[in-house]
Amino acid sequence: MAYVVTDNCVDCRFTKCVEVCPVQCFHVDERMVYIDPDGCIDCAGCVPECPVGAIDDEYNLPDDKRAWIEINRDRAAVLPRLTGGMEPLPGAQQRKAELGL
Amino acid sequence: MGMEEKIIGACPQDCPDTCSMIITKSDGIVTGVRGNPDHPFTRGRLCAKVNNYQDRVNSTDRILYPLRRTGLKGTAAFERIGWDEALDEIASRWKAIIGTHGAKAILPYSYLGTQGILNGLTVGDAFFNKLGATISERTFCDSGACTAYTMTIGHSAGVDPESFVHSRYILLWACNTLTTNSHHWPFIEEARKRGAKVVVIDPYRSRTARQADLHVPIRPGTDGALALGIIHILFRDGLVDTDYVAQHTVGADELAERAQDYPPERVAAITGLSVDLIAELAHGLSESQPSVIRIGVAIERQSGGGQAVRAIACIPALVGSWRRPGGGLLQLPLWAFPVNWGTFLRPDFIEPEPRVLNQWKLGAALTGEMALDPPIQSLMVYNANPMVMSPEQARIAEGLLREDLFTVVSEQFMTDTARYADIVLPATTQVEQEDIMFSWGHMYLSYNNRAIDPIGEAVPNTELFRRLAKTMGFEDPSFYRSDAEQIADAMLWDAPQMQGITLERLKREGYARLNLPSADEYAPHANGHFATPSGKCEFYSSMAADGNFVLGLFRQGYDGQQSGEPIDPLPHYIPPQESAESNPDLAARYPLNLITPKSHAFLSSTYGNLPHQRRQAGDQSVTLHPDDAARFGIAASDRVKIWNDRGAFEAVAQISPDIRQGVIVAPVGYWPSLNGGQATVHAITSSRYADLGKAPTFSDNLVAVERC
Ligand code: SF4
After folding, report:
1. Ligand 1 site, CB within 6 A
2. Which of B187, B154, B156 has the alpha carbon at shortest distance from B172?
3. Each residue of B161-194: pLDDT tens digit?
4. Helix, strand, coil tally for chain B in percent (to 5)
5. What distance, in Å, lies between the first and last C-alpha atoms of chain B?
6. What is the pLDDT of residues B466-505, one digit of tens each?
7. DSSP β-bridge partners for residue B445
8. A22, B44: Cβ pair inside 8 Å?
9. How far apart are CA B592 and CA B597, in angstroms?
10. Which of 3.40.50.300, 3.40.50.740, 3.40.630.30, 3.30.200.20 is the CATH number of B67-134+359-513?
């Protein structure tokens, strides 16, 4: 019952999503962000903000991305909460280009 | 693929947020929706209900053509017919009923399945008033709170929800903001960043309560006692703004005397809260200025709900919080909108002695239990799904099965009510219709531009009633106004709130803030100016003398034949009808209090049939405290039966310490036809009224639970 960050975020971490999240439910590590599924209110505000299309509704995820549901839950539980945007990781633009976006 | 095009619309749901939406279409097909990032209140976000609105529009389950029943009632056996045929049949049946029984034998049943000013609450009122049908008294939502509010502070917009950023102490009372008013949350968060404290009063730890600084887990239905306990402490501890009270209120001495009856020890025993906690609330509301109270609709759904709102509405004046922006009470900013209601209600069409029927009595009215003369021979349902959202579900089903009842339902989907219809008429979704929208959760007037032509033969409600008027031979030209003409008539464009707002601008931008002071400056009652008979905040209500009433807006514009039961002019506590304290015999058989909040994924019953929302919501659930689960031998995920003398439904058990012991929580909105056991929450609720405004008592239930 939540939105999920998937692999396109890895090594990008643009964090535009974090800036619009009304409930501050993003958590962060060195490589990407994760959504706490218990905090997420399903507003979808973050989806169009992500420059690399990394975020989707749990129920829209294709089979090969469904593992990210658990990863988001597990990682969000142990990582610090992010309350504002950060600089994208070095190489984020390049990775975005590689993704064809 | 054709060019993608974007259209600005507005969400049609009966939700305070009225989000500005951007609809994407391609080749005449709606391909997506998103929130409009420019809108200052809704800020680019929608919600779990509406994020995939395109799936609703394009669903293969849509009703796209008129249908006539071919099989048994309730079995959804229909054949497609043409509009002319459908209208002819309606006209001939209605004319026959009018000839035999009179027009009062026809009952309209509707609420806010769509909320636009044209297509929403009042869309059929002029038609049915002219027809002479029974007047439908619609007290679904906030009617009790409105009566209480009107008696105390008048038709006030109250605090601007955006002003909450200036609040220092925010009390969310019976309001699960993150589920039912989620766009308000960022303003609350911003206040918190600036140092405000956020307190949530709710019998269970809702997702909003989990985010709060303090959760007050009150016993259901005892909010009035808590409010009076707070008032007691305000007087006792010298926390009253005596200057404000002297200038802008009526009845402070009487209220102080009344509050003597509610010492904290007594209130603690009633509410299940500690004396210290009650004192903390009183001191917080008084000492952290400006303080603000946001009440949710849930508060009225108790036997004493109206008087609870009366007591709560006194608090901001007592502590003087109205003095500053961000202080006071937020209930229903709807009153800020200068809607030209009269043009839609047309009370002048009402005959001298009409009949009024409250919508909670549908089951009793249809089954004949009410012994109405004439009996209801025809029911027309639009913007509503009473089989899911009205009490006494089994009795309604029994009534709808009557062979001699002619039922017409206008719908987008084959709802559990439509299944019983004789004629079903296809209704458009919001992207297929034009409308202008008020909000009851912010100060922006919105415009919904039609994005696509109606699909199939669906029509907007406005067109439905144009067609019905023609079929019934009405001559008054007002029945034939186009949508554009109705939009031009919809607002009092000369009102000060509308200064600077033109229709052209509204269409282009999708929304406009009413011409009010900015949220940083808006303090509507800093100098009193309450819209009550005395112009003051009436602790001692002068309107109480006329007895209980429902606002005309909820009764097709009719103000006569009010029930007028006596009202105590001072706030007081009315205990629940069904609790261990008030009814120990009943509690011996039915030991648990059931409360019925809104589901996160449904908007009342809307979306209760869509695959995406159903997956998210899961099956009808009921949540129990671990001690109650142990006591009744229930494990998580067990299928359980919940019942009382009125009925039974099945649900999947969830177990959580987030709920008070002795209370269970089952969200509403699930459709019986899609829920095992063919029944949902309203199988066990009663049609009893709350004390004021004929609000329902949906959270005043004792039930028993056992494993299936
Ligand atoms: S249901 Fe409410 S929150 Fe959701 S999109 Fe509509 S107005 Fe916004």
Report:
1. B 11, 13, 15, 17-19, 46-47, 49-50, 182, 603
2. B187
3. 999 999 999 999 999 999 999 999 999 999 999 9
4. 35, 20, 45
5. 52
6. 999 999 999 999 999 999 999 999 999 999 999 999 999 9
7. B512
8. no
9. 16
10. 3.40.50.740
**Cα-trace Rg, chain A:** 12
Number of CB atoms found within 10 A of residue B284's CB: 19
Please report the sign of the dihedral spanned by the C-alpha atoms of residue B22, residue B23, residue B24, residue B26: negative
Min Cα distance B54 → chain A (Å) is 14
Global pTM?
A: 0.96
Q: Compute the distance between CA of residue B150 and CA of residue B562 in angstroms, rounded to an integer.
A: 15
| Statement: B584-707 belongs to CATH 1.10.645.10 | no
In this model, does residue B547 exceed pLDDT 90? Answer: yes
CATH hierarchy code of domain A3-85? 3.30.70.20
ipTM exceeding 0.90, yes/no: yes
Q: Give pLDDT tens digits for B297-332.
A: 999 999 999 999 999 999 999 999 999 999 999 999
- In Å, how far are B84, B191, B478, B679 from B482, measured between CA atoms? 20, 45, 9, 41
Give φ, ψ of B73 to 5 degrees.
Answer: -60, 140
Angstroms from B708 CA to nearest CA on chain A: 27
- What pLDDT is recorded for position B1? 56
DSSP string, B74-107: TTT-EEE--HHHHHHHHHHHHHHHHHHH-GGGEE
